[in-house]
Write a structure and sequence with these properties.
globular, Alpha-D-Glucose-1,6-Bisphosphate, Chain A, domain 4, alpha+beta, single chain
Amino acid sequence: MKLELSFDVQAPIDAVWPALNDLDQVAQCLPGAAITGLQEDGGYHGQFTLKVGPFATVHDGTIRIDAADEAAREQRLSVTGSAGHGATIVNTLSEVDGATRVDADVELHVAGPLAAFVGSGVIRDVSNRLLSDFATCLAGRLNTPAAPTGAEVTTGQAAPEELLAAAPHEPPDPGSAAG
């Protein structure tokens, strides 16, 4: 089954590109996905729980980045799953109004009971929902400012506003001065 999907991540392309090439980070934002191990060739073992209609299935498999062309902002992934499931995914990133559009061309191989849903549009609907949730999670992670490190604090950078607000400074009590 061929799917052409697009989603927008509300973050700059220079932040989204490295995040999409960090499969640990991708798995943390993809509902139902979990990394369970690393292969010697740089691929990852993982599990993916998929809910489609009345079915909830857990698939073991591997995912790897086969190619990542930073200049073209194009990435090719291969997914090999249990029971004949798998996919080839080509992601192409482009900048759109300060956000990043990801166009995903997916060649999906589905077997077993899920194959009955291939022609019904359910797979496309589920894929769009997963990608929407993924984009929201990724944007949240990329747009959350990191807490300053000890080095940043010692070089004179101000503490974040939320830390300053959490610890209000009270003036000294004049009656408590030691004399």
